[in-house]
Amino acid sequence: MIPKHITTPIMITTHITTPMMITTPIMIPTPIMIPKIQFIYLLFQQNVHKLAFSCGVPINLNGIVGLGRGPLSLVSQMKANNFSHCLPSYDYPEEIGIVLVGSPIKNHPKIKITSSILTNNFFPSKYYINVTGICVGNVNVTTDLDSFSINKIDGTGGVVIDIGSTVTYLEPSIFEKVHHQVSNQINRSTTSDDETKLPVCFATPKRNEAFTYPIITFYLGGPGGSSSNLTLSIGNTYREYTTLARKKITCLAMKVASPSEHKMLSLGNIMLQDTLVVYDLVKKTVAFLPDYKCDKM
């Protein structure tokens, strides 16, 4: 259990490799779609000398902690063999997220969902995972494994964990197939929403309405040729919003990756909320435990 007296609100990201940037200590509300991480608990057995960090500009946060694989990230400077994080649910703003750096979590349940960490020499600081397919309902929308592979010639492609991003970004052809299956399986029209900037939205089902949300599953390849499935909960896949016209809509928390993202797919923080994610930097694996309460860490 993490001590309750550590209460510094900060943002974490596996997408940035710079050291911690500390801004004003005044409590300023965080942007609506950034999970608040209130505890960072560093667990290590040796002294760390000459830890590099810098001051940042005001960003409505008390700091940014980089957890990437670059030499200046907090994880690299701590020489940590592993770290873990649990992002709180957007549905319960009073909940907190937790990051553990430098020691495995004690007494955590056995995790069965594991992916190998892949390396992209063009972007060595990012955590690439081995995604082998995506399923919407019972339909596998990806039959071409090259859709997820890293191009060794130019470094494009691949799938990264980016908890600094709100939604999940998919390559255009994959996104269109996901969009098509979601629309077909809910049997109602979908449209883009200008307020949320999300491209797949529909009228929120009424409470007494018979409605089934299509479940989305990511197939993962693990060490030694093993495989496992990361099945997303409804709350990790769809988000409900109230428009300025006071209409309730539900949107798929996924978008098309922009060309500037090098055809890279990225898993955002909505997809990983209420999920314990454990990075083993020695075994080069990332493990997932969905439906996990962060205060259990």
Automatic annotation (TrEMBL):
Its EC number is 3.4.23.-. InterPro entries: PEPTIDASE_A1 (IPR033121), Peptidase_aspartic_dom_sf (IPR021109), Plant_Aspart_Prot_A1 (IPR051708), TAXi_C (IPR032799), TAXi_N (IPR032861). GO terms for biological process: proteolysis. Keywords: Hydrolase, Protease. Signal peptide: none annotated. Residues 1-289 form the Peptidase A1 domain. Gene3D superfamilies: Acid Proteases. GO terms for molecular function: peptidase activity. It is an enzyme of class 3 (hydrolase). Belongs to the peptidase A1 family. This is Beta-site APP-cleaving enzyme. The gene is BACE1.
